[in-house]
Design a protein that fits this description.
By secondary structure, the chain is of the alpha/beta class. It contains 16 helices and 13 strands. Strands 1, 2, 3, 6, 11, 12 and 13 form a seven-stranded mixed β-sheet that branches. Strand 4 and strand 5 form a beta hairpin. Helix 15 runs antiparallel to helix 16. The longest helix is centred in the last third of the chain and has 17 residues. It starts with about 30 loop residues before the first helix and ends with a helix.
Length: about 425
């Protein structure tokens, strides 16, 4: 994983066209009387088999069902059964489900702690020589590499920056601020007009999402969270104390909705789509979902700048995620590779992107929806890879997000960081 910022280029003219693999969707070579596929290309199944596709994006099921139907028509001897679960459960239970190979021949994983844990446990099949890797933007799939091997292939490109209601901003003559004082002033004006400044899902995804933009310009270096795991940085250092203090400031001034720690993702999203809140502390992955709930919404992304304008290094956050992989325990690894190969075809990736509202890492994809274009606007901004995913230990990651919740429940930033650092210290000693 590279710790430097990516200057991403996603427009259709930015990449040279990549020819599609002839084996994609083809019948077995023996049936056609041709030579077998070249090394690195998954052959079609000779006998009927069923493979399992495991992931956490239940909202994408309709699109994936259509894609699976197309895949099965092109590969009649391969049946795909899909299973999903909520993202929070997925992070805690996916490894157990993958253990015997009966579930998740193809599975998705998060970068960071989950990826590291699954790699350490040996669940990834090496995809380094798979020809379908050429269908992806190489810069965006680096996070799936470990020790020089491509173990997983990120399918989604996400900007983990809060979403704002453009019409509400225009109504109150507001623009995305360039410094912390400006962000506080913006929130105060919204609050003064009876609008919740920030809808915050404090009960589940909020701390892990909003922390990224809150900390990005407070970091002494882009790899501070990596250093945390090896004892070269501490949560009691000024950069995390400051970040928690700013969380506390937003909370104490009433810029989150009441009972933010009791608010789950769906409820926070409803506050935003019902236009009771002007900002949703999540990311680009929710743009399409919001639009579906309220077709009148006009949305864009902003990131709070927690420093003075001339001290800001980053404009926002990006993540390459939904990392597709083949289970090393799978009884049908070649068929699993064939399915990932099919997903990497640009026309299939375009269907997935435009139906689900998710930008993708596949090259030369045509985006048709306004929500996807909103994310594309961020391609040339200076963004940092999501800091939370530099925390490769799950307990450390939990300690960090729990410290945010502790501050919002009334604990001082100093006490919250001491408690979190104690957990980190224990993990380092193991």
């Amino acid at each position: 994983m590279k710790n430097s910022t990516f200057n991403l280029k996603l427009s259709v003219v930015a990449f040279a066209a990549v020819s599609l693999l002839s084996a994609c969707g083809a019948a077995p070579a023996a049936q056609q009387g041709t030579t077998p596929p070249a090394a690195g290309t998954a052959p079609a199944a000779a006998k009927p088999v069923t493979i399992s596709f495991l992931h956490w994006r239940g909202e994408d099921v309709k699109s994936f069902n259509s894609i699976i139907e197309q895949f099965q028509k092109a590969n009649p001897n391969i049946k795909v059964e899909m299973q999903t679960m909520p993202s929070d459960q997925y992070q805690s239970t996916a490894q157990a489900k993958l253990a015997d190979g009966s579930v998740g021949d193809v599975f998705a994983s998060f970068p960071g702690a989950q990826y590291e844990a699954l790699a350490k446990a040996g669940f990834y099949t090496d995809l380094t020589n798979a020809k379908f890797l050429g269908n992806f933007n190489d810069q965006l799939i680096q996070v799936g590499k470990k020790d020089g091997k491509q173990l997983a292939v990120p399918y989604q490109l996400v900007y983990n920056d809060p979403i704002y209601n453009v019409k509400l901003f225009e109504k109150y003559n507001l623009t995305p601020p360039k410094d912390w004082d400006g962000f506080l002033a913006l929130c105060e004006k919204l609050k003064g007009n009876g609008i919740i400044p920030i809808a915050f899902a404090g009960a589940d995804i909020g701390p892990g999402q909003f922390m990224n933009t809150m900390v990005m310009n407070n970091l002494p270096s882009a790899d501070s969270f990596t250093k945390l795991g090896i004892g070269e940085a501490k949560l009691t250092d000024e950069w995390w104390v400051k970040t928690l203090s700013q969380f506390k400031e937003l909370n104490d001034k009433g810029y989150f909705q009441p009972n933010s720690l009791g608010t789950k993702d769906a409820a926070a999203g409803a506050l935003f789509t019902q236009e009771k809140a002007a900002i949703l502390a999540s990311g680009s992955y929710q743009l399409a979902q919001n639009k579906k709930a309220n077709p009148e919404l006009v949305q864009k992304l902003l990131a709070p700048i927690t420093v003075a304008a001339d001290k800001a290094t980053y404009e926002g956050i990006h993540t390459a995620t939904f990392m597709l992989a083949v289970n090393s325990k799978s009884k049908h690894p070649e068929e699993a590779k064939t399915f990932i190969e099919f997903l990497s075809k640009k026309e299939i990736a375009a269907q997935y992107a435009n139906e689900t509202g998710q930008n993708v890492t596949v090259k030369d994809v045509q985006y048709t929806s306004p929500e996807l274009q909103v994310a594309v606007e961020w391609a040339n901004k200076k963004t940092l890879f999501q800091p939370r995913f530099f925390i490769t230990d799950a307990e450390n990651q939990k300690a960090v997000t729990n410290s945010i919740q502790a501050v919002l429940s009334g604990k001082s930033p100093q006490d919250a960081t001491k408690e979190a650092q104690a957990i980190v210290d224990q993990q380092i000693k193991k």
